[in-house]
Amino acid sequence: MIGKIAGRLDYRAADHVLIDVRGVGYIVYVTDRVMAGLPPTGEAVALYTDLLVREDNLQLFGFTSLVEKEWHRLLMSVQGIGAKASMAILGTLGADGVSRAIALGDWNAVAKAKGVGPKTAQRVTIELKDKAPSVMAMGGTVSEALGDEVIEADTPPSPRPARQTPKANPAQAEALSALGNLGYAPGEAASAVAEAVGENPDADTSALIRAALKLLAPKG
Q: Could you tell me which residue ranges the Holliday junction DNA helicase RuvA C-terminal domain spans (predicted)?
């Protein structure tokens, strides 16, 4: 399994790039979002990759984060979602958008991806909703640039919501971490999670995330 490619970006095509690794060129398929974030041709580049093995073909798909790569693998586990559809979903929503959509059960957002119909989108949100919290939390342990800051920032507020609730909920810290990885400020994330816990003290992580995201969603 080829899990990561690091080398020089040789050229870009419509849906893939060629990365030179010590004289060996690897064709890596990427989404429009990933393509837009790559450095200019000739510069160093690194991507996490997932290898798709078929009888007559081998294809590498590239991602800028392990969270995005994991969503790709999970999306392809859903009936009706192949590599092309998975890349379309990630290209349309991004890793954070996919996390939000699946945590909230928002199949309409998933259905915006090219080639993904309403029934397939509903199947995606239903089958993967219980896996959303664990994938969202990966950002705190995998992203060297942002993950540590998110975890440290989320730690202080967690005692405050605990004092506002009848009893401690172990899922609270996981929900805070996941919301932090999605880009929410520690204060607003803690407030939303605290309110969610107050309404349902026994909620699991997935339920807390969904409730908090609804509270944080723009009103109007």
A: 171-217
User: Contact, 174 vs 133, CB < 8 A?
Assistant: yes
Tokens matching residue 112: 């915006």
Whether this model's pTM surpasses 0.70: no
92-115 mean pLDDT: 90
pLDDT of residue 32: 92
| 192 burial type by CB count under 10 A (0-12 exposed, 13-18 middle, 19+ buried) | buried
Phi, psi at 63, each rounded to 5° = -145, 150
18 by Cβ neighbours in 10 Å (0-12 / 13-18 / 19+) ranks as middle
pLDDT tens per residue, range 1-54: 788 999 999 999 999 999 999 999 999 999 999 999 999 999 999 999 999 888
**Paired sense of beta strands 24-29 and 57-63, if any:** parallel
Task: Tell me the domains of the chain and their CATH numbers.
Answer: 4-63 (2.40.50.140), 67-131 (1.10.150.20), 138-216 (no CATH)
CA atoms of 165 and 195, how far apart (whole Å): 9
